TrEMBL record:
This is RNA polymerase sigma-70 factor (ECF subfamily). GO terms for biological process: DNA-templated transcription initiation. Residues 110-160 form the RNA polymerase sigma factor 70 region 4 type domain. Keywords: Sigma factor, Transcription, Transcription regulation. Interacts transiently with the RNA polymerase catalytic core formed by RpoA, RpoB, RpoC and RpoZ (2 alpha, 1 beta, 1 beta' and 1 omega subunit) to form the RNA polymerase holoenzyme that can initiate transcription. The keyword Cytoplasm does not apply. One of its GO terms (molecular function) is DNA binding. Belongs to the sigma-70 factor family. ECF subfamily. Residues 11-75 form the RNA polymerase sigma-70 region domain. PANTHER family: ECF RNA POLYMERASE SIGMA FACTOR SIGI-RELATED, SIGMA 19 FACTOR. InterPro entries: ECF_Sigma-70_Domain, NTF2-like_dom_sf, RNA_pol_sigma-70_dom, RNA_pol_sigma70_r2, RNA_pol_sigma70_r4_t2, RNA_pol_sigma_r2, RNA_pol_sigma_r3/r4-like, WH-like_DNA-bd_sf.
Length: 293
């Protein structure tokens, strides 16, 4: 076995870890694969004598590649201010590759959505430290900051990811249970189960971007709202509870890409109102965060 083949074998042993790092940073299996492949090409061009710890070197390089990709992605979005940013996901209903489905479920749709709202440096610092326990001394040169500044960066990202609930811990748990029951009934098409968690005079409102043609922007009454849930059922499998402007709601995120948000109002033990939000500008203005598991 020649030196190149030996290096390739050592790289392949690291590939699963590099993919995991890249996917959490980029939220896309195809982009993650591109980042890993670029890492291999850089390794192949590097003098092996300069590499003391291959695993750490590869993680640093793939992180730098991902940071560059995130910055490029952010720049493209800023160029499109006022326009609808192209969706990088496949159309709803089209199946993703099996590996991506597994990764999205493993990482969590809400977390992927929230990570997408962080700055590139925040996302890289958060993922490396919170998910892979990389020390800040190693993160600092990747994000171009001191270890102390890198720690602050990750801390700021953590606060954004966790958000600030607008209700007490006990109320938050109750509201989450209610929303999860609503989602479970919606996924199974259980109209009776949906009615059970709705207030009798519940109101569902929506912006036009969240609705298919012919659907009303406002529907009221538990039975009427529950019956239209069948229309939402196609997307319910892509939904996950999250904090939406401080309250327990839902994000609908095929392939980890935000498509819709449900801002839910709970009164007592029932859902009194919920709003379907699909307009891109409104979605970008929402404060979204994950719920503690």
């Amino acid at each position: 076995m020649n030196e190149h083949d030996s290096l390739a074998d050592r790289f392949e042993a690291q590939r699963p870890h590099l993919r995991a790092v890249a996917f959490r940073m980029l939220g896309s299996t195809s982009e993650a694969e591109d980042a890993v492949q670029e890492t291999w090409m850089r390794l192949d061009r590097t003098d092996r004598a300069d590499i003391v710890n291959l695993g750490g070197w590869l993680r640093t390089v793939v992180s730098n590649v991902c940071l560059d990709m995130l910055r490029s992605r952010r720049a493209r979005r800023e160029e499109l201010v006022g326009e609808q940013v192209p969706d990088r996901s496949s159309p709803v209903g089209q199946e993703t590759p099996e590996r991506e489905v597994i990764l999205v479920d493993e990482v969590g749709r809400a977390l992927l959505v929230v990570l997408d709202a962080l700055t590139p440096a925040e996302r890289v610092a958060f993922v490396l430290h919170e998910t892979f326990a990389v020390p800040f001394a190693e993160i600092a040169p990747i994000v171009g900051r001191s270890p102390v500044a890198a720690k602050k960066l990750a801390s700021r990202a953590r606060r954004k990811v966790r958000g600030t609930p607008s209700v007490s811990g006990a109320e938050l748990a109750e509201h989450r249970q209610l929303v999860e029951a609503f989602l479970a009934a919606a996924r199974s098409g259980d109209v009776t189960g949906v009615v059970a968690v709705l207030a009798p005079d519940v109101v569902r409102v929506a912006d036009r971007a969240a609705l298919s043609a012919g659907r009303a922007t406002e529907v009221s009454g538990a039975q009427a709202v529950a019956e239209e849930i069948a229309g939402f059922g196609r997307n319910a499998r892509f939904a996950e509870p999250a904090l939406v402007n401080g309250a327990v709601g839902l994000v609908v995120a095929p392939h980890g890409r935000l498509l819709l948000a449900l801002a839910i109002t709970v009164e007592g033990t029932k859902i009194a109102r919920y709003e379907l939000i699909g307009d891109p500008a409104r979605l970008r203005s929402l404060e979204l965060a994950v719920l503690d598991t």
